[in-house]
Design goal:
The complex is a heterodimer of chains A (about 110) and B (about 120). Chain A has about 110 residues and is an all-beta fold. Chain A is about 0% helix and about 50% strand. In chain A, strands 2, 6, 7, 8, 11, 12 and 13 form a seven-stranded mixed beta sheet that branches. In chain A, strands 1-3-10-9 form a four-stranded antiparallel beta sheet, with no helix packed on it. In chain A, strands 4-5 form a two-stranded antiparallel ribbon. The radius of gyration of chain A is 13 Å and the shape is globular. Chain A starts with a strand and ends with a strand. Chain B is an all-beta fold and about 120 residues long. Chain B has no helices and eleven strands. In chain B, the strands form two sheets. In chain B, strands 2, 4, 5, 6, 9, 10 and 11 form a seven-stranded mixed beta sheet that branches. In chain B, strands 1-3-8-7 form a four-stranded antiparallel beta sheet, with no helix packed on it. Chain B starts with a strand and ends with a strand. Classes of the chains: A mainly beta (about 110), B mainly beta (about 120). Chains A and B meet through β6, β7 and β12 of A and β5 and β10 of B.
């Protein structure tokens, strides 16, 4: 099974500052058929289901603010929020859909400093 | 508007069975891979099962293999999860989630609100 490890487990950032969350997979999730990484990022607010932010490691889902961006390849990935807003307080998960079992990171809790 | 509405959760005793349903609307249900994902109270996300567009291919993690069965009725736009031999560690909110495409190589772009399954004596 591919193990997804996020860092840090929790993060406190001031409003307007940059937030960076890392995700490392135990093996490559690069899909050779399209040369894209099978890696997604989700945001989950309390009492709500997860919301897709990023897929193929760096493609922003429709309607997601452009302050959210994803980067990385192979085994190391990053979710960046360029200028933190109050509504960004949530838990963020990475997710590999390269093979079965599909696996998620343990989550990173993002708070306002 | 895409909507996924889960139902069927509740309180059951260990060893019992339960069937969850997910009614889909707002998209061509038969064209998309569907998945169940669960979240134990205060914990992270765990993939539970996936099913191909036709329903002919299914996948499960070891934690539920042999106990859970995913299925779909494309004529009714409904996804199911039959759960048997339930254990306390199956207690979770169960989400129905839509893949972005008909391929397994896709993120999950829509999620239902979830249905709570509690396994306790």
């Amino acid at each position: 099974d591919i193990v997804m490890t996020q860092s840090p487990d929790s993060l406190a950032v001031s409003l307007g500052e940059r937030a960076t969350i890392n995700c490392k997979s135990s093996q490559s999730v690069l899909y050779s058929s399209n040369n894209k990484n099978c890696l997604a990022w989700y945001q989950q607010k309390p009492g709500q289901p997860p919301k897709l932010l990023i897929y193929w490691a760096s493609t922003r889902e429709s309607g997601v603010p452009d302050r959210f961006s994803g980067s990385g390849s192979g085994t190391d990935f990053t979710l960046t929020i360029s200028s933190l807003q109050a509504e960004d307080v949530a838990v963020y998960y990475c997710h590999q859909y390269y093979n079965s079992p599909s696996t998620f990171g343990q989550g990173t809790k993002l708070e306002i400093k | 508007e895409v909507q996924l509405l889960e139902s069927g959760g509740g309180l059951v005793q260990p060893g019992e069975s339960l069937r969850l349903s997910c009614a889909a609307s707002g998209f061509t249900f038969s064209s998309y891979v569907m998945r169940w994902v669960r979240q134990a109270p205060g914990k992270g996300l765990e993939w539970v099962s996936s099913i191909s567009t036709s329903g002919s291919t299914t996948y499960y993690p070891d934690s539920v293999k042999g106990r859970f069965t995913i299925s779909r009725d494309n004529s009714k736009n409904t996804l199911y999860l039959q759960m048997s031999s339930l254990r306390a560690d199956d207690t979770a909110v169960y989400y129905c989630a839509k893949g972005r495409s008909g391929s397994y190589y896709s993120g999950l772009d829509y999620w239902g609100q979830g249905t709570l399954v509690t396994v306790s004596s």
